[in-house]
Amino acid sequence: MYRTKTNLLSLVTVIIIGGGLMLALLFALAGGLKAMPTATWYVDAAAGSDSNDCQSLGTACATIKAAIGKAASADVIEIAAGTYAEYDIANSNKSLTLTGAGADSTFIDGGGNGRVFVLGNTVVISGVTIQNGRIITPSSYLMANNALSPLAC
Predict the structure, then answer these.
(1) How many whole angstroms from its chain centre is CA 142?
(2) pLDDT < 50 positions in the chain
């Protein structure tokens, strides 16, 4: 009887410890642990250079494309006020947050040359006006309020 109690107690201990580890693993796999931004990248059309490291306001990139190229998934890209003449800006399947200085002062202008953004993953865009993209196929544009017009976000 004593040996049975000891074996049963050992079995319960293993189940509790193993169950806790399994629960932690399931929690992590289910997305319970969110990725934190690993870096913030800076873009400034007026004062930046794409040869900069883009890791501070003083060493900002000149283009959004360059900052996205340097960023990793879950990073944040801060876009200074100005007009960015860019199109076909691809996020390379990275989950990113792009934040402009305000929709009334930060413009991403495709110049009628193509889609402004080509997005393949979760991207949060705020504080910018997206304008003058060119429709290539019916599925390659965003409509705001059922009208093709500049999109302020």
Answers:
(1) 18
(2) 2-34, 139-141, 143-149
State the pairing for strand pair 151-152/117-118.
unpaired
Measured between alpha carbons, how far is 57 from 78 in angstroms, rounded to an integer?
Answer: 9
> 37: which DSSP letter?
P
pLDDT score at 96: 95
Give the strand pairing for 89-90 and 106-109.
unpaired
Contact criterion met (CB below 8 Å) for 60 and 81: no
Report the alpha-carbon distance of residue 125 to residue 1 in Å, rounded. Answer: 67
Helices (H), the chain: 2-29, 64-70
The strand pairing partners of 117, in sequence order, are 89
Continuous segment of H or E residues that includes residue 89: strand 89-90
- pTM for this structure? 0.68
pLDDT at 81: 98
Contacts within 8 Å (CB) and 24+ apart, 52-58: none
Q: Residue 93: its pLDDT value, please?
A: 87
The rounded distance, in Å, linking the Cα atoms of 37 and 26 is: 23
**Smallest Cα–Cα separation from 55: which of 37, 82, 31, 35?**
37
